[in-house]
C-alpha cells in the first residue's frame, strides 16, 4: 500500500444557503503521495482556491473530509488547526504575502519562532535556509526592496522553515517573468524530489505542467476528464471546445464563451473589413491543450 | 526580542507619522496630568516650607486647629510654662501668626506675618541673603522676591499689620505661588492686638531621642485646650488642605488627560491594525494563534503608551527645571504618588486602547491570503 500525505475524500464546499447558495467544490477526491507534485488547473471561478483553502485547513468543507498523514484535519477544532498549519503546511502565494514591516530574515525566522524555536536558533535556521536559496546577501532587506523572484524565494524559505509535509502553492509563478518563473519551478521540483515533500500547485501557468507528476483539471467545482481548450478571441477567456459557441471564418474555427462574444467578434470583423479581419485572425491563436485526467495517470 | 515585540515594534515603526502622532498625543495628555499634579504638589511643598524649616518638632495650637493656612489659633501665653516642664520637651518658642498683606508703593502681597520673641530659638527665617535674621521693634524681614518686585531693599519701609516697618533683612525660600512669610518682632505684633497676652502657636523642640509623636500626645494629655502635632503630622494636615482645595480641578484635568490619551492611542493602534489586517491574516494562515496576534496588538498599545509616558515625564521634568530657573514663585514637584497614578492611567489606557483592534484581529479570515490584491 502506497503512503499518502494528503487524502481529500469527497470534499464539497457550499457558500450560502437556498437559491443564492453557491456550490464551489463538488465531491472532489484526491490523494497526494510523498514527493509528488500535483498541478491543479482550471478556469477562473472553478473552485481551485476554495479547494486549496480546504486542503490547507483554512476552510472547513461542507461535506467530505481532508486527511493529512492520516489525521482528519477537517474534523479538528479551530483551536488545533494553527499548530497543523504551522508545522505541517508550507504556503506559497501568488502575491508572496510577505510581512512588509519585517526584513527578509525576520519574515522567515518569525514563523520558526511561532513554532517554538527560540530567537537565535530561529534566526540561524532562517539564515541557513535563505542562504541556500541564494538570498544570503538580502537578509536585512525589506520585501519592498526585492525583485519578484527574490520575494518568492523568501516565501519558499518561509514555507520550508518548519519542515512541512505538504507545500501548497497558489499561482507561484503568476507574478514572475519567464526566467524567474522557471527558477521557482526548478526549486519546487527539488523540494519535492530531494526532500520528499508533497507539493500541490494551483495555477493557470502551462509551464508548470513540465514539473508536475500529475495535472488535474478542475471546472465547476469538480475534476473533469480530457477536454480540449480554446481561447475566446473576443474576451480572451479559456473555453472548452466541445461546449463552446463556435463560428467558422475563412476555413478557420473560432470558439466563444457566449453568443454575445461571437456576435461582437464577427460584427467587428464585418465592420473592419475582411483584410483587417484576416489580420486579426492571424494574431489570434487558438490555444488548445489536451489535459490528461488525473485518474488516468 | 520575541516575535511579538518585534512585530509590534515594526508595525508601529513603519509609519513614522502615525507613531509620532500616537506617542506625541499620549505624551501631551499624560504630561497634562503630570504637570498639574506637579504644580499642586509644588504649591503644597511651598506652603509647608515654613513648617518644615521653622525648626520645631511639635506644633502646639488652639484645640481643633490642625494647620496653618486659612485658620486662626489663639492660646494664652501661659501655655509656654505649661508645656516646658513636660518630659521630652527641650525648648518652647511662642509665635504669633496671621495672614495679612504687605505693601510697598503699588506692590501688595499676601504674607504669613510671624511675630517672633527676641530670644526665639525656632520659627525665624532660615536663609538670609542680606541683612539681619532678627527683627527688632519697628523692623521686618521680607522675602527677597517681594522686595525685588516692590523695588525696596534694606532700610526701606513697608506697610504691614496696619502700620509700617523698616526692612532689616531679606530672606530666601520663604515665598510660594500664593504668599510669602514676613517676620516682625513679637512685641510689635502683640501691640497690634492691643497687648492681649495670647500667642498663636507654641513651637516645641524635643530632647534628643524623644519621639515627637509621643511627646505631642503627652502635651495634649497634660495641657487642656490644645492640639499638639508632630511636624510630620502638621505638614500632612497642611498638605491635605491644598489637596482638598485642588482635588476637583486635578480630577477634571486627569479625566481630560486620560480620555485624550485613550482616544489617541485607541485610534492610532486601531488604524495601525486596520492597515495590517492582511498581515494578520497571513500570520493566521501560517499558523499564528489568535492570542499571539492579540499580544502583538497589546504590545503595540503598551509601547505607544510607554514611550509617550517617558516623553511626557521628560517634558514635565524639563518644564519643572525651566520654571525653577525663573523668578516665578512656582515649583513643580513630580511626586512618586503622581508617577504611580499616571503610570496606572497609562497601563489602563494601553489595555483599553487594544480592545477594539483585538476585535478586528479576531475577525480576520486567514483565507484572505488567497484574495489577490484585495484588502482583508
Major sheet details of chain B: 6 strands, mixed, barrel
CATH superfamily of the largest domain in chain A: P-loop containing nucleotide triphosphate hydrolases
Ranges of chain B with pLDDT <50 over ≥5 residues?
A: none
Derived structural class of chain B: alpha+beta
Give the strand line-up of the largest sheet of chain A.
6-7-8-3-9-10
Strand % of chain A is 15-25%
Mean pLDDT of chain A: 83
Name given to the CATH architecture of the largest domain in chain A? 3-Layer(aba) Sandwich
How much is the radius of gyration of chain A in Å? 22 Å
Intertermini distance of chain A: 17 Å
What is the domain total for the residues of chain A? 2
| Class computed from helices, strands and strand pairing of chain A | alpha/beta
Main sheet overview of chain A: 6 strands, mixed
Q: How many strands of chain B?
A: 12
Q: How much helical structure, as a percent, in the residues of chain A?
A: 25-40%
- Give the SSE string of chain B: HHHEEHEEEEHEEEHEEHEHHHH
Question: What is the oligomer described by this structure?
Answer: heterodimer
State the shape of chain B. elongated
Care to count the β-strands of chain A? 14
Q: Beta fraction of the residues of chain B?
A: 15-25%
Order of strands, main sheet of chain B, comes to: 3-4-9-6-8-7
Amino acid at each position: 500500500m502506497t503512503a499518502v500525505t494528503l487524502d481529500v475524500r469527497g470534499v464539497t464546499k457550499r457558500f450560502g444557503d437556498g437559491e443564492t447558495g453557491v456550490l464551489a467544490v463538488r465531491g472532489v477526491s484526491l490523494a497526494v503521495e510523498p514527493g509528488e507534485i500535483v498541478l491543479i488547473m482550471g478556469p477562473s471561478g472553478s473552485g481551485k482556491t476554495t479547494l486549496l483553502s480546504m486542503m490547507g485547513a483554512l476552510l472547513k468543507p461542507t461535506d467530505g473530509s481532508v486527511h493529512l498523514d492520516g489525521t482528519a484535519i477537517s474534523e479538528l477544532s479551530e483551536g488545533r488547526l494553527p499548530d497543523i498549519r504551522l508545522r505541517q503546511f508550507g504556503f506559497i502565494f501568488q502575491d508572496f504575502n510577505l510581512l512588509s514591516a519585517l526584513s527578509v530574515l525576520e519574515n522567515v525566522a518569525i514563523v520558526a519562532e511561532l513554532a517554538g524555536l527560540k530567537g537565535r536558533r530561529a534566526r540561524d535556521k532562517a539564515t541557513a535556509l535563505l542562504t541556500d536559496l541564494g538570498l544570503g546577501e538580502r537578509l536585512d532587506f525589506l520585501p519592498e526592496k526585492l525583485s519578484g523572484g527574490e520575494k518568492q524565494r523568501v516565501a519558499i524559505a518561509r514555507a520550508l522553515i518548519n519542515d512541512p509535509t505538504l507545500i501548497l502553492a497558489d499561482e507561484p509563478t503568476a507574478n514572475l517573468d519567464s526566467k524567474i518563473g522557471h527558477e521557482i519551478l526548478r526549486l519546487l521540483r527539488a523540494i519535492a524530489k530531494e526532500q520528499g515533500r508533497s507539493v500541490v500547485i494551483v495555477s493557470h501557468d502551462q509551464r508548470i505542467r513540465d514539473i508536475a507528476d500529475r495535472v488535474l483539471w478542475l471546472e465547476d467545482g469538480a475534476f473533469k476528464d480530457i477536454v480540449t481548450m480554446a481561447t475566446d478571441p473576443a474576451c480572451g477567456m479559456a473555453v472548452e471546445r466541445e461546449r463552446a459557441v463556435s463560428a467558422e471564418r475563412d476555413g478557420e474555427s473560432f470558439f466563444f464563451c457566449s453568443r454575445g462574444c461571437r456576435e461582437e467578434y464577427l460584427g467587428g470583423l464585418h465592420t473592419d473589413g475582411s483584410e483587417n479581419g484576416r489580420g486579426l485572425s492571424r494574431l489570434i491563436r487558438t490555444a488548445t491543450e489536451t489535459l490528461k485526467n488525473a485518474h488516468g495517470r | 526580542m520575541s516575535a511579538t515585540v518585534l512585530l509590534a515594534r515594526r508595525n508601529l515603526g513603519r509609519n513614522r507619522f502615525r507613531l509620532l502622532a500616537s506617542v506625541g498625543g499620549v505624551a501631551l495628555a499624560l504630561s497634562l496630568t503630570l504637570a498639574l499634579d506637579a504644580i499642586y504638589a509644588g504649591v503644597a511643598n511651598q506652603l509647608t516650607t515654613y513648617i518644615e524649616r521653622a525648626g520645631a518638632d511639635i506644633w502646639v495650637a488652639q484645640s481643633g486647629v490642625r494647620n496653618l493656612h486659612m485658620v486662626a489659633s489663639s492660646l494664652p501665653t501661659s501655655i509656654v510654662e505649661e508645656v516646658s516642664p513636660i518630659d521630652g520637651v527641650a525648648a518652647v518658642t511662642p509665635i504669633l501668626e496671621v495672614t495679612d498683606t504687605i505693601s510697598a508703593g503699588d506692590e501688595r502681597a499676601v504674607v504669613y506675618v510671624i511675630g517672633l520673641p527676641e530670644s526665639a530659638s525656632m520659627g525665624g527665617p532660615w536663609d538670609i541673603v542680606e541683612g539681619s535674621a532678627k527683627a527688632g521693634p519697628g523692623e521686618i524681614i521680607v522675602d527677597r522676591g517681594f522686595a525685588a518686585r516692590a523695588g525696596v531693599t534694606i532700610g526701606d519701609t513697608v506697610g504691614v499689620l496696619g502700620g509700617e516697618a523698616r526692612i532689616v533683612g531679606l530672606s530666601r525660600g520663604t515665598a510660594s505661588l500664593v504668599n510669602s512669610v514676613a517676620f516682625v518682632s513679637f512685641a510689635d505684633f502683640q501691640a497690634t492686638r492691643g497687648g492681649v497676652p495670647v500667642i498663636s502657636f507654641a513651637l516645641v523642640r524635643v530632647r534628643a531621642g524623644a519621639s515627637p509623636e509621643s511627646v505631642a500626645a503627652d502635651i495634649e494629655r497634660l495641657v487642656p485646650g490644645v492640639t499638639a502635632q508632630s511636624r510630620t503630622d502638621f505638614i500632612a494636615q497642611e498638605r491635605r488642605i491644598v489637596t482638598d482645595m485642588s482635588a476637583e480641578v486635578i480630577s477634571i484635568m486627569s479625566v481630560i488627560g486620560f480620555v485624550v490619551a485613550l482616544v489617541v492611542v485607541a485610534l492610532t493602534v486601531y488604524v495601525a491594525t486596520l492597515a495590517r489586517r492582511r498581515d494578520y491574516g497571513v500570520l493566521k494562515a501560517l499558523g499564528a494563534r489568535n492570542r499571539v496576534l492579540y499580544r502583538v496588538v497589546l504590545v503595540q498599545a503598551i509601547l505607544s503608551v510607554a514611550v509617550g509616558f517617558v516623553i511626557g515625564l521628560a517634558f514635565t521634568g524639563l518644564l519643572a527645571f525651566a520654571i525653577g530657573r525663573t523668578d516665578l514663585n512656582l515649583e513643580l514637584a513630580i511626586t512618586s504618588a503622581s508617577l504611580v497614578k499616571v503610570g496606572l492611567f497609562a497601563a489602563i489606557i494601553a489595555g483599553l486602547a487594544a480592545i477594539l483592534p483585538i476585535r478586528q484581529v479576531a475577525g480576520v479570515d486567514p483565507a484572505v491570503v488567497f484574495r489577490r490584491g484585495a484588502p482583508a
